[in-house]
Each structure stands twice: as C-alpha cells, then as structure tokens.
Amino acid sequence: MLATFTSAATLRRACLPLVRRTSLLSNAIRLYSSNQQRGGLNFFNRTSLPMNTIVKFVPQQEAWIVERMGKFNKVLKPGLAILVPFLDKVRYVQSLKEVALEIPSQSAITSDNVTLDMDGVLYYRVVDPYKASYGVEDAQYAIVQMAQTTMRSEIGQMSLDLCLRERTTLNSHITTAINEAAQDWGIQVMRYEIRDIRPPVNVVDSMNQVVEKDRQKRAIILESEGRRQSEINISEAHKQTEVLKSEGEMRKRVNWAKGSAEAVTMKADADSAAIKKIAKAITDNKGGKDAVSLRIAEKYVEAFGKLAKETNTVILPSNLDNFSQFIAAGMGIYKNIDSNTLAKKVIDADKAPKKILDSKN
C-alpha cells in the first residue's frame, strides 16, 4: 500500500510541470482570442515598457507616462530623460502617430428594414497622452465599439438608397459622433471610411432588376426621341422644300410680269415712235394727207371685202350700193382727226383685218 502511495505521489510530481505549462498556454490562448475580438492590442503584440535605466531616450512621435511610487508623475517628450531609480517607472507608452484601425464587419438595419453588412476603416491619433492612458482602459477597443454603435445608429435613420448614395455624409456623421465621445479619452478621430456595404442577395437581385428596367426605359426613351427628331427633321425638310418651291414660283411670276411689262413698254415705245414718224411724214410732205386718206379708204374697203368671205354672218353698211358715199365717208373720217391720230389710225387700219379674222376664228 505504501508503495502504491509513493508511486502516485511520484507520478503527480512528474506531471505537475506539464499541467502548469498547459494551463499557462490555455490562458494565453484565451487572452489572445479575447483581445482579437475586442480589436485592440493583444497579448503577443502589446508594446513592451522600457526599463528604468536612469538615463532614457524617448523616440520621436512617442510620449511616455512616468509614475513615481504608483502615482502619475510626468509625461516624457521625445529626447533625453532622467529617471529616479526604484521610484520612477514608465507605465504607458503612447504613439502620437496617426493610426489606421480596421472596424470589423457588422449588421445594421436601414429605415426601410433592409439588413446590411458593413465594415470600415477608422483613422485616429492620440492628442492627450495622459487622458489616453488614464481616461479609458483600452482606447482602441473603445473606439471600435463606438464606431460600430454609431454606424448602426446612423444606418437606422437612412434608407437603403440613401446609404448607398450618401457615403460621404454617413462617414462625416460617424466621425463627428465618435469625436464627441472620445474627448475624455485624449483621442481625435481624423476620418472614417466605409469600406464595403453588402446588402442581402435578394436585395442585390432586385436592385439589378431595377437597374436593368431603368436601362431599358432609357433605351426606349432615347429611341422614341430619335424617331421624334427624325420626323421633325423630315417635316422641316418638306417645309423648306415647299418654301423654296413657292419662292421659286414667286420669282418666276415676278420675272414673267416684269418681262411682260417691259414687252408692253417696249411695244408702246415702238408704236409711239412709229406714230411720230408717220405723223411727221404726213405733215412734212405735200400731199401726204391725201395719200393717207386714200390709204385708209383702201384698207376700209379691203376689210369689208375680207369679211364677205368668212362664214355666214356679214356686217355691211346700209349704203353699200352707193360706193361713192362709202368712199366719202372714209374721207370725212380723215378730215376730223389730227396728224398724230391719223398716224395711229393708219397703223390700226393695217391691223384691223387680222384682228377681225382672229376674232372670227
């Protein structure tokens, strides 16, 4: 029995270091997983604190928080620093550089009840090392949680279309809300950028259908506008054609009228010149009037002679049996007119038979 007890004790002592190592490893893994979920500095990448070696050199863009006997003493700025041995201790190291912090994906419901999965990137910097060290336990974790809650709150006040269209406004609202809460943490958020917005699959399909319908609608509208413009162009072409035709016809008639007027004017001028020449010949030559009187009588007789040859209707003077009186009547007409009128009568007498024949035909 004593041997059994001794064997058990020996086995327990042999296994104790292994159990302790397993426990330490389990605790480390649990701490790592917890910090990963919180989004802050985890167990393995936490910045190591510098040891008190009396003389220290603080790097550029860093601030060291020094405690003396467990109480805040001062903030060391970049450069040379002297610490009191055993009393002073560097408790926190804060980076003053701008830091990019990834915001994990999360679900949010819009005002029109559409669930969206969203993630983003937040850029911040430490502006007050004292507040960043003592104002919050884990600044990065607090910022991540504030960004997620603010994003859900802002998304809940907007519709899906507005969320997709107003990313810049949404980013600005989230940045303002985080800065208001982070004033006591010594942190300033420079900007927030939404990286991805992922609607549900059925919503994406519906949006694609809407986009396709909208494209078809625009195509139909553009086609109808094209037909309308084509009809307008054709009508305008017909209109211009008719206008040009009417202008051409108008110019044609104007030109014809001008030509006719010029022809009449020229003919009148020619007749006037002929009358003047005949009148001058009658008045200047002795016996001219007797010759003209004889010519008129001949034409008068000739005209009536031609009338007698045409169709059944003949107009005769009442005293045609007395030819001497017929000639005397012609001579009497001559005596009652002046020289110009006489010349015109001669011309008309030459044309009279032709006019009579034309009217009879």
Question: Which properties best describe this structure?
Answer:
4 domains; disordered C terminus; 9 helices; alpha+beta; disordered N terminus; 18% strand; 361 residues; single chain; Tetrahydropterin Synthase, Chain A
Strands ordered across the widest β-sheet = 3-2-5
N-C termini distance: 170 Å
- For the record, the CATH class of the largest domain is Alpha Beta
Q: Please describe the biggest sheet, giving its number of strands, its sense, and whether it closes into a barrel.
A: 3 strands, antiparallel
Strand composition percent: 15-25%
Tally of domains: 4
Let me know the average pLDDT.
75
Poorly predicted sequence stretches spanning 5 or more consecutive residues: 1-6, 36-46, 353-361
Helix content: 55-70%
Structural class: alpha+beta
- Under the CATH scheme, the architecture of the largest domain is 2-Layer Sandwich
CATH topology of the largest domain: Tetrahydropterin Synthase, Chain A
Q: What is the ordering of alpha helices and beta strands? A: HEEEEEEEHHHHEHHHH
**Backbone shape:** rod-shaped
Descriptive notes:
The protein is an alpha+beta fold and about 350 residues long. A hairpin with a 2-residue loop joins strand 2 (about 60-70) and strand 3 (about 70-75). The strands form 3 sheets. Strands 3-2-5 form a 3-stranded antiparallel sheet. A 3-stranded antiparallel sheet has the order 6-7-8. The longest helix is centred in the last third of the chain and has 84 residues, at about 200-285. Helix 6 packs across helix 9 and helix 7 crosses helix 8. The chain contains 9 helices and 8 strands. It has helices at about 1-40, 130-135, 140-155, 160-165, 165-180, 200-285, 290-305, 325-335, 340-360, and strands at about 55-60, 60-70, 70-75, 80, 90-95, 100-110, 115-125, 185-200. It has 4 domains: about 50-95, no CATH class; about 100-200, Tetrahydropterin Synthase, Chain A, CATH 3.30.479; about 205-285; about 285-360, no CATH class.
